[in-house]
Amino acid sequence: MPPTVEDRLRDILEAIAEIDQMMSGHGLEQFTEDRMRRMATERCLEVVCEAARKLPDSIKQDARDIDWRKMNDFGNRLRHAYHRTDVAIVWDVVQNHLPPMKAFVERRIGASR
User: Is 64 helix (H, G, I), strand (E, B) or coil?
Assistant: First the structure.
């Protein structure tokens, strides 16, 4: 049975929590130098992007502040052009695009309880 919308939302939230934990106390320079941390972060971002890509448009319409297309394009880059992943772009996504997604998912999960 394929994952439900709630499953995908939980997957997004769990992956963001992992990223938050990995990034805690680390700046861009430390992140850039720590290959294992970058790779783990990229994997969690793949989960976020893939789960977000599978959310119905009706749900995405409730979060117009999230650039769903950018997240989808970024996910495609991680999956298919991993060899050209730019650390600055990963950092930007983590710092600027995950917080609104996390807030949205927390609201959605809270509203469904």
Answer: coil
